[in-house]
Design a protein that fits this description.
Elements: H1 2-12, H2 17-38, H3 42-64, E1 79-82, E2 85-88, H4 95-117
Antiparallel strand pairs: 1-2
Helix pairs in contact: 1-2, 1-4, 2-3, 3-4
């Protein structure tokens, strides 16, 4: 599900850096889901857990403090500095993000459980 949300976000944001990163996330998530469904391996499960953890963390940082403008998704277009690092203003929490993060949290739990049993 998270891969589908990222693909939709990527298509919606076109050829921007954020859109390209969303499409890359979707491709990785689709690929890992296929790999786990076709041939469940502990390595694929661990990789899916790690990718999901990174994506959840990036979202939390993006909506709390902001990410560098090159990769951030912010509707305000303003920036601020933290420890000399220029960051985009935090993005708003939205339904797409909540849906994707819920699916990624589910993927983390599923990956941990499948990784233990396989």
């Amino acid at each position: 599900m998270a891969a589908g949300v990222h693909a939709a976000i990527g298509l919606d944001h076109g050829s921007t850096n954020f859109g390209s990163l969303a499409m890359a996330s979707a491709a990785v998530q689709f690929g890992l889901a296929a790999a786990i469904m076709l041939r469940r391996s502990g390595q694929a499960c661990r990789l899916a857990v790690m990718v999901s953890l990174v994506l959840v963390e990036l979202y939390v940082v993006n909506v709390t403090t902001g990410l560098p403008p090159l990769v951030a998704h912010s509707h305000s277009g303003t920036t601020h500095q933290i420890f000399g690092l220029i960051l985009a203003s935090p993005a708003p929490v939205d339904g797409e993000g909540i849906l994707a993060k819920g699916a990624e949290l589910g993927a983390i739990l599923t990956g941990v459980l499948l990784g233990r049993s396989g």
